[in-house]
Write a structure and sequence with these properties.
Elements: H1 2-6, H2 8-49, H3 53-83, H4 85-99, H5 115-137, H6 142-150, H7 156-163, H8 172-201, H9 209-228, H10 234-251, H11 256-279
Protein backbone atom coordinates (compact mmCIF):
# COMPACT_ATOMS: atom_id res chain seq x y z
CA UNK A 1 0.00 0.00 0.00
CA UNK A 2 2.82 2.35 0.88
CA UNK A 3 4.47 1.64 -2.44
CA UNK A 4 1.27 2.47 -4.34
CA UNK A 5 0.87 5.68 -2.38
CA UNK A 6 4.50 6.56 -2.90
CA UNK A 7 4.11 6.26 -6.65
CA UNK A 8 1.30 8.80 -6.64
CA UNK A 9 3.33 12.02 -7.13
CA UNK A 10 5.44 10.59 -9.93
CA UNK A 11 2.35 9.16 -11.59
CA UNK A 12 0.55 12.50 -11.36
CA UNK A 13 3.52 14.38 -12.83
CA UNK A 14 3.83 11.77 -15.56
CA UNK A 15 0.11 11.99 -16.36
CA UNK A 16 0.33 15.78 -16.63
CA UNK A 17 3.27 15.55 -19.01
CA UNK A 18 1.57 12.82 -21.06
CA UNK A 19 -1.66 14.76 -21.49
CA UNK A 20 0.28 17.92 -22.32
CA UNK A 21 2.17 15.98 -24.99
CA UNK A 22 -1.07 14.50 -26.39
CA UNK A 23 -2.62 17.97 -26.54
CA UNK A 24 0.43 19.37 -28.34
CA UNK A 25 0.45 16.48 -30.84
CA UNK A 26 -3.26 16.84 -31.61
CA UNK A 27 -3.03 20.59 -32.09
CA UNK A 28 0.10 20.13 -34.21
CA UNK A 29 -1.66 17.50 -36.31
CA UNK A 30 -4.55 19.88 -37.02
CA UNK A 31 -2.21 22.69 -38.10
CA UNK A 32 -0.08 20.25 -40.11
CA UNK A 33 -3.12 18.87 -41.95
CA UNK A 34 -4.34 22.34 -42.77
CA UNK A 35 -0.85 23.40 -43.83
CA UNK A 36 -0.58 20.48 -46.22
CA UNK A 37 -3.88 21.51 -47.80
CA UNK A 38 -3.14 25.23 -47.81
CA UNK A 39 -1.51 25.36 -51.25
CA UNK A 40 -4.47 23.61 -52.86
CA UNK A 41 -6.93 25.79 -50.91
CA UNK A 42 -5.21 28.99 -52.06
CA UNK A 43 -5.19 27.74 -55.66
CA UNK A 44 -8.92 26.93 -55.52
CA UNK A 45 -9.71 30.32 -54.01
CA UNK A 46 -7.74 32.08 -56.72
CA UNK A 47 -9.55 30.13 -59.42
CA UNK A 48 -13.06 30.46 -57.97
CA UNK A 49 -12.95 33.86 -56.23
CA UNK A 50 -10.35 35.84 -58.19
CA UNK A 51 -7.64 35.97 -55.55
CA UNK A 52 -7.18 35.65 -51.80
CA UNK A 53 -7.94 39.30 -51.06
CA UNK A 54 -11.59 38.52 -50.46
CA UNK A 55 -10.72 35.77 -47.99
CA UNK A 56 -8.28 38.00 -46.09
CA UNK A 57 -10.83 40.83 -45.91
CA UNK A 58 -13.50 38.46 -44.60
CA UNK A 59 -11.01 37.01 -42.10
CA UNK A 60 -10.11 40.49 -40.82
CA UNK A 61 -13.79 41.32 -40.35
CA UNK A 62 -14.45 37.98 -38.66
CA UNK A 63 -11.54 38.49 -36.28
CA UNK A 64 -12.77 41.95 -35.32
CA UNK A 65 -16.29 40.58 -34.90
CA UNK A 66 -15.18 37.73 -32.62
CA UNK A 67 -13.29 40.16 -30.38
CA UNK A 68 -16.26 42.55 -30.33
CA UNK A 69 -18.74 39.78 -29.45
CA UNK A 70 -16.46 38.50 -26.70
CA UNK A 71 -16.02 42.04 -25.36
CA UNK A 72 -19.79 42.58 -25.29
CA UNK A 73 -20.34 39.27 -23.48
CA UNK A 74 -17.64 39.98 -20.88
CA UNK A 75 -18.99 43.51 -20.40
CA UNK A 76 -22.44 42.12 -19.64
CA UNK A 77 -20.90 39.71 -17.12
CA UNK A 78 -19.04 42.54 -15.38
CA UNK A 79 -22.18 44.69 -15.34
CA UNK A 80 -24.23 41.84 -13.90
CA UNK A 81 -21.59 41.21 -11.27
CA UNK A 82 -21.55 44.87 -10.25
CA UNK A 83 -25.32 45.11 -10.04
CA UNK A 84 -25.58 41.82 -8.16
CA UNK A 85 -23.02 42.71 -5.49
CA UNK A 86 -25.76 43.27 -2.91
CA UNK A 87 -27.41 39.93 -3.66
CA UNK A 88 -24.02 38.25 -3.50
CA UNK A 89 -23.46 39.67 -0.02
CA UNK A 90 -26.89 38.43 1.10
CA UNK A 91 -26.17 34.96 -0.30
CA UNK A 92 -22.82 34.97 1.44
CA UNK A 93 -24.47 35.78 4.78
CA UNK A 94 -27.01 32.99 4.24
CA UNK A 95 -24.32 30.42 3.50
CA UNK A 96 -22.28 31.66 6.45
CA UNK A 97 -25.21 30.98 8.78
CA UNK A 98 -25.70 27.56 7.20
CA UNK A 99 -22.02 26.80 7.65
CA UNK A 100 -22.32 27.80 11.31
CA UNK A 101 -25.28 25.42 11.73
CA UNK A 102 -27.92 28.10 12.16
CA UNK A 103 -31.52 27.70 11.02
CA UNK A 104 -32.20 30.06 8.10
CA UNK A 105 -35.87 29.17 7.75
CA UNK A 106 -35.64 26.77 4.83
CA UNK A 107 -38.19 24.03 4.42
CA UNK A 108 -37.10 20.92 6.24
CA UNK A 109 -37.20 17.50 4.66
CA UNK A 110 -39.44 14.89 6.23
CA UNK A 111 -36.66 12.32 6.05
CA UNK A 112 -33.74 12.39 8.42
CA UNK A 113 -30.55 12.82 6.34
CA UNK A 114 -27.77 10.30 6.67
CA UNK A 115 -24.32 11.23 7.90
CA UNK A 116 -22.99 11.00 4.35
CA UNK A 117 -25.68 13.36 3.07
CA UNK A 118 -24.90 15.79 5.88
CA UNK A 119 -21.20 15.67 5.04
CA UNK A 120 -21.94 16.30 1.36
CA UNK A 121 -24.19 19.20 2.32
CA UNK A 122 -21.50 20.70 4.56
CA UNK A 123 -18.97 20.37 1.74
CA UNK A 124 -21.25 22.12 -0.75
CA UNK A 125 -21.98 24.91 1.72
CA UNK A 126 -18.28 25.39 2.50
CA UNK A 127 -17.41 25.43 -1.21
CA UNK A 128 -20.17 27.93 -2.02
CA UNK A 129 -19.08 30.12 0.88
CA UNK A 130 -15.47 30.08 -0.32
CA UNK A 131 -16.56 30.98 -3.86
CA UNK A 132 -18.66 33.90 -2.62
CA UNK A 133 -15.84 35.13 -0.35
CA UNK A 134 -13.44 35.08 -3.29
CA UNK A 135 -15.95 36.86 -5.53
CA UNK A 136 -16.48 39.59 -2.96
CA UNK A 137 -12.77 39.96 -2.17
CA UNK A 138 -11.57 39.84 -5.78
CA UNK A 139 -14.30 41.18 -8.10
CA UNK A 140 -13.43 41.39 -11.77
CA UNK A 141 -12.80 44.91 -13.03
CA UNK A 142 -12.36 46.45 -16.46
CA UNK A 143 -8.62 45.64 -16.59
CA UNK A 144 -9.15 41.95 -15.92
CA UNK A 145 -12.09 41.92 -18.31
CA UNK A 146 -9.85 43.34 -21.04
CA UNK A 147 -7.33 40.56 -20.48
CA UNK A 148 -10.12 37.95 -20.64
CA UNK A 149 -11.34 39.41 -23.94
CA UNK A 150 -7.89 39.57 -25.52
CA UNK A 151 -7.01 36.05 -24.36
CA UNK A 152 -9.82 34.54 -26.42
CA UNK A 153 -7.68 33.44 -29.36
CA UNK A 154 -8.74 31.22 -32.24
CA UNK A 155 -6.68 28.15 -32.97
CA UNK A 156 -6.95 24.41 -33.50
CA UNK A 157 -10.68 24.29 -32.73
CA UNK A 158 -11.40 26.84 -35.45
CA UNK A 159 -9.38 24.87 -37.99
CA UNK A 160 -10.87 21.54 -36.90
CA UNK A 161 -14.40 22.92 -37.21
CA UNK A 162 -13.64 24.20 -40.70
CA UNK A 163 -12.29 20.78 -41.69
CA UNK A 164 -15.65 19.20 -40.87
CA UNK A 165 -17.40 21.11 -43.66
CA UNK A 166 -18.72 18.65 -46.28
CA UNK A 167 -16.89 18.58 -49.61
CA UNK A 168 -19.98 19.83 -51.44
CA UNK A 169 -20.31 22.94 -49.24
CA UNK A 170 -20.56 26.08 -51.43
CA UNK A 171 -17.34 28.16 -51.34
CA UNK A 172 -15.66 25.59 -49.10
CA UNK A 173 -12.09 26.60 -50.12
CA UNK A 174 -12.91 30.21 -49.30
CA UNK A 175 -14.28 29.25 -45.88
CA UNK A 176 -11.23 27.11 -45.14
CA UNK A 177 -8.86 29.93 -46.07
CA UNK A 178 -10.84 32.36 -43.91
CA UNK A 179 -10.53 29.93 -40.98
CA UNK A 180 -6.78 29.66 -41.50
CA UNK A 181 -6.38 33.42 -41.73
CA UNK A 182 -8.49 34.01 -38.60
CA UNK A 183 -6.53 31.43 -36.60
CA UNK A 184 -3.12 32.64 -37.74
CA UNK A 185 -4.05 36.29 -37.36
CA UNK A 186 -5.48 35.72 -33.90
CA UNK A 187 -2.43 33.79 -32.71
CA UNK A 188 -0.02 36.35 -34.16
CA UNK A 189 -1.87 39.49 -33.09
CA UNK A 190 -3.38 38.49 -29.75
CA UNK A 191 -0.85 35.83 -28.83
CA UNK A 192 2.21 38.03 -29.26
CA UNK A 193 0.69 41.06 -27.51
CA UNK A 194 -1.05 39.25 -24.64
CA UNK A 195 2.04 39.06 -22.34
CA UNK A 196 2.63 42.80 -22.81
CA UNK A 197 -1.04 43.54 -22.12
CA UNK A 198 -1.01 41.45 -18.92
CA UNK A 199 2.15 43.19 -17.68
CA UNK A 200 0.64 46.58 -18.48
CA UNK A 201 -2.81 46.07 -16.97
CA UNK A 202 -2.06 43.54 -14.22
CA UNK A 203 1.44 44.22 -12.92
CA UNK A 204 2.82 41.64 -10.53
CA UNK A 205 2.45 42.58 -6.88
CA UNK A 206 4.65 41.29 -4.07
CA UNK A 207 3.20 38.85 -1.60
CA UNK A 208 1.15 40.68 0.96
CA UNK A 209 -0.45 39.88 4.32
CA UNK A 210 -3.25 37.91 2.63
CA UNK A 211 -0.86 35.42 1.02
CA UNK A 212 1.22 35.22 4.19
CA UNK A 213 -1.95 34.36 6.10
CA UNK A 214 -2.83 31.66 3.57
CA UNK A 215 0.66 30.16 3.80
CA UNK A 216 0.21 30.04 7.56
CA UNK A 217 -3.10 28.23 7.12
CA UNK A 218 -1.39 25.71 4.82
CA UNK A 219 1.35 25.21 7.40
CA UNK A 220 -1.24 24.58 10.11
CA UNK A 221 -3.07 22.05 7.90
CA UNK A 222 0.20 20.21 7.29
CA UNK A 223 0.99 20.11 11.00
CA UNK A 224 -2.51 18.90 11.87
CA UNK A 225 -2.42 16.22 9.16
CA UNK A 226 0.97 14.99 10.36
CA UNK A 227 -0.31 14.83 13.96
CA UNK A 228 -3.45 12.90 13.01
CA UNK A 229 -1.64 10.47 10.69
CA UNK A 230 -0.97 8.24 13.69
CA UNK A 231 2.30 6.91 12.34
CA UNK A 232 5.93 7.88 11.96
CA UNK A 233 6.13 6.50 8.41
CA UNK A 234 7.13 9.52 6.29
CA UNK A 235 5.23 8.26 3.24
CA UNK A 236 2.02 7.89 5.26
CA UNK A 237 2.54 11.34 6.76
CA UNK A 238 3.05 12.90 3.33
CA UNK A 239 -0.05 11.09 2.04
CA UNK A 240 -2.14 12.46 4.92
CA UNK A 241 -0.79 15.96 4.34
CA UNK A 242 -1.55 15.74 0.64
CA UNK A 243 -5.10 14.59 1.37
CA UNK A 244 -5.58 17.57 3.69
CA UNK A 245 -4.38 20.01 1.04
CA UNK A 246 -6.51 18.39 -1.65
CA UNK A 247 -9.51 18.75 0.63
CA UNK A 248 -8.76 22.46 0.96
CA UNK A 249 -8.39 22.69 -2.82
CA UNK A 250 -11.78 21.06 -3.36
CA UNK A 251 -13.38 23.52 -0.97
CA UNK A 252 -11.70 26.44 -2.71
CA UNK A 253 -10.85 28.29 0.48
CA UNK A 254 -7.18 28.92 -0.33
CA UNK A 255 -5.35 30.56 -3.18
CA UNK A 256 -4.52 28.11 -5.96
CA UNK A 257 -0.93 29.36 -6.30
CA UNK A 258 -0.25 28.77 -2.60
CA UNK A 259 -1.78 25.29 -2.71
CA UNK A 260 0.03 24.38 -5.93
CA UNK A 261 3.38 25.36 -4.41
CA UNK A 262 2.65 23.36 -1.24
CA UNK A 263 1.58 20.28 -3.22
CA UNK A 264 4.69 20.55 -5.40
CA UNK A 265 6.85 20.54 -2.27
CA UNK A 266 5.09 17.43 -0.97
CA UNK A 267 5.56 15.71 -4.33
CA UNK A 268 9.25 16.60 -4.32
CA UNK A 269 9.66 15.27 -0.76
CA UNK A 270 7.94 12.00 -1.60
CA UNK A 271 9.91 11.52 -4.81
CA UNK A 272 13.12 12.12 -2.84
CA UNK A 273 12.04 9.45 -0.36
CA UNK A 274 11.45 7.01 -3.22
CA UNK A 275 14.86 7.70 -4.71
CA UNK A 276 16.61 7.25 -1.37
CA UNK A 277 14.73 4.00 -0.68
CA UNK A 278 15.72 2.58 -4.08
CA UNK A 279 19.36 3.63 -3.93
CA UNK A 280 19.74 2.70 -0.26
Amino acid sequence: MARAQGALPGARLSDAQNWSTVEMLLEGAVFLLMGLQLVGIVRDVQDEHAGVGTALAIAAGALVLTVAVRAAYVSLLLLGQRRGAGRTTERRDTFARLHAGEDVGHRRSRRTPTERQLEQFRTRVARALADLDHLLAHPLDARQGTVVVWAGMRGAITLAAAQTLPAQTPARPLLLLVAVAVAVGSLLLQGTTLPWLVRRLLPATPAGPAQDAQREVVRQRLVEAAATAGTADPVAVLTAQRAALLSERDLGRLDSAVLTAALAELDADQIALEVRSRTG
